[in-house]
Amino acid sequence: MADKNSASTGDNTGDTTAPLDFIRQRVTDDVAAGKNGGRVHTRFPPEPNGYLHIGHAKAICLNFGLAAEFGGKCNLRLDDTNPLAEDTEYVESIKADVRWLGFQWDGPDYYASDYFPALYDMAERLILAGKAYVCSLNVEQVRQYRGNWNLPGRDSPDRNRSIAENLDLFRRMKAGEFPDGTYTLRAKIDMAAANMNMRDPALYRIRHAHHHRTGDAWCSYPTYDYAHGQSDSLEGITHSICTLEFEDHRPLYDWFLEQLDIHRPQQIEFARLNLTNTVMSKRRLLELVKQRLVSGWSDPRMPTICGLRRRGYTPQSLRSFCAAIGVTKFNSTTPMARLEEALRHDLNESASRVMAVLEPLKVVIENFPADQVEPRLAANHPAKPELGNREISFSREIFIERSDFMENAPKSFFRLQPGGEVRLRFAYVIKCHEVKKDPATGEILELRCTYDPETAGGKTPDGRKIKGTIHWVSATNAVEAEVRLYENLLLVESLSEVEEGADWKEQLNPHSLRVLRGCKLEASLQNAAVGQSFQFERNGYFCLDSEDSRPDSLVFNRSVSLREASDKST
Ligand code: ATP
Ligand code: MG
Q1: Dist. CA 59 → ligand 1 center (Å)
Q2: Measured between alpha carbons, how far is 113 from 47 in angstroms, rounded to an integer?
C-alpha cells in the first residue's frame, strides 16, 4: 500500500465515537497546548539484531498511525549501538517488513550509528561539566558497587577523578589505547538513588568490534541507554513511544537531555504485546533459528512478520489486529485466537474458494463414461458473484476426503457411507455401492459409486433430502501438492508457566507442523501465485509457500482453519 494515511487512519480511527487511547489523548492535549509548535513526530526504533515480530507490528502501527492521524511524521531509526549483535541482513528485513505492513517512513533511513560523532561530543561535554567520569572497575566490581533494591550503591574509587584526567582517558579510549573491559565512561548521578538506573550508569564501553556500518572507525561504543534519548532528541522527535519496561529509564533519559540542554521528546510507555502459545523475544526466536528447531526466521510457525507473511497473513489483517487490541498501560496476554480471527475476517471477504482434497480417497463413478469429462461451473465466492466463476471437471474418477466416508457411520454422520447418498459440491448426488479394501491390511482403497444424472447442481428432482455436501477433485486433471498444516509453536500459553531452571524449549509443540503429501488440488491451483490466498472449501485458508514451492512440486501452507479449534459448531 503506497498511501500510509489510508493504511493507518483507516484502521485506527474508523469509529470516530470510540474514546481515544491514553497515548492519542496525550498527543491530542500536547497539540492543543501548542507543545513543540503543534508538531507530532514519532519514530520506530528497532535494533537490527533480529527479524521483526508481531509485537513490533503493534509498535509500528502505533507510531506510524499517530503520525498519519496528526498530520505528523514518523522516522525509521535503526538503533544500532551494539556491533556484536547487529547485521545488515536484519536492517534489510526490517525495512522490507515495515513497507509490507503498508507504511513508509519520512526522510532517509536513520541510524543511531550516524550519531556516534555527535554522541561522542555530548559525552565530552558531560565530562567537562563534571557529569561523567572514566571508571576502571570491571564488570564484577561494578555489580558489587551497585548495591541492590535494599542496599544503596557505593561510589567508584574513580568517581572524583579530575576533569582533565577523565577527558584524557576518554580520548584514549576512543583512540584504541585500551583493551576491552578496562574502562567505562559513567554518568555521575547518584549511587544511592532509589532508581537503580540512576546509579552512575555506563555511557561508553570499550569494544574492539567491527560495526556493520561504521566498520572499524570506533572501538568505544555508546550504551543503548545513553544513545536512545539523544538520538530521539537529534531527530526532533516529539513523542518517544516505547514499551513499559523503559518507564524506569525515563528519568535517566531526561537527565541526559537536561544536562545537555537539548530538545526534550516526551517519552510515553505502553504495554507490549504478548500472545498465547508463542514466544515474543528476539533472543528466543534467534535460539530457535540457530538450533534449527524451525526452518529459519520465516518459518510459518514463527510470530515474525516474515513468518506470518509466508503463513498467509495479510498486511490488512495484522493492521486490523493491532487496531483491535489497542494500547494500554497494563501488561496482558492476548489470545492467539484473536490474531487468527483477524486473518479469517480479512480472507473471508477476499479469498477465492477452491476445492482441494488433503487426504484423498479414490471414488469410481461406475455409470459415468470413462472417456468423458463434464465441465461444471463453480462460484469463486458464495456471497460475491462479482468474483466470478471457474470451470471444474467432473469425471468417472474423483477424489474425496477419507474423513468424508465412514463404513459404520453413526446417525449424526451426513456424509458418504455404504448405501448412502451425498451431494458433490457444484456437481451431482452420488451413492456408494461398494467399498474396495486391501485384503491384507483392510485399508480402504476405493469406493464404487453411481451418480444421479438428474441432480446436476445438487438439486434432487423428487425432493428427496440429501443432508451432506462434500468437496471433491477430478482425477483427470488434479494437481498434486504437499500441504503443511500448523499448530501453535508452544504447548503452554505462557512461558511464565515453565519451571525455574527448566529449558523453555521443552514446551515446543511436537505437532506444530504436519506435512501431508499427495494432496489432490483442483486444476486451477496450478496457477496460484505467491501472495494469493485461497479458501480450500471446508479445509481452511491456504497460500502457496513462498520458499519451497516449485511449479512441478507445489507446496501450500494452511494460513488458518475456517474456525477456532475449540468451536465445535457445525
Ligand atoms: P525483543 O524484546 O523482542 O527482543 P526489543 O524491544 O528488544 O524486542 P527493539 O528492536 O528494541 O526490540 O524494538 C523496537 C521497538 O518495538 C521498540 O520501541 C519496542 O518498544 C517495540 N516493541 C518490541 N517488542 C514489542 C512488543 N512485544 N509489543 C509492542 N512493542 C514492541
Ligand atoms: Mg530492545
Answers
A1: 7
A2: 11
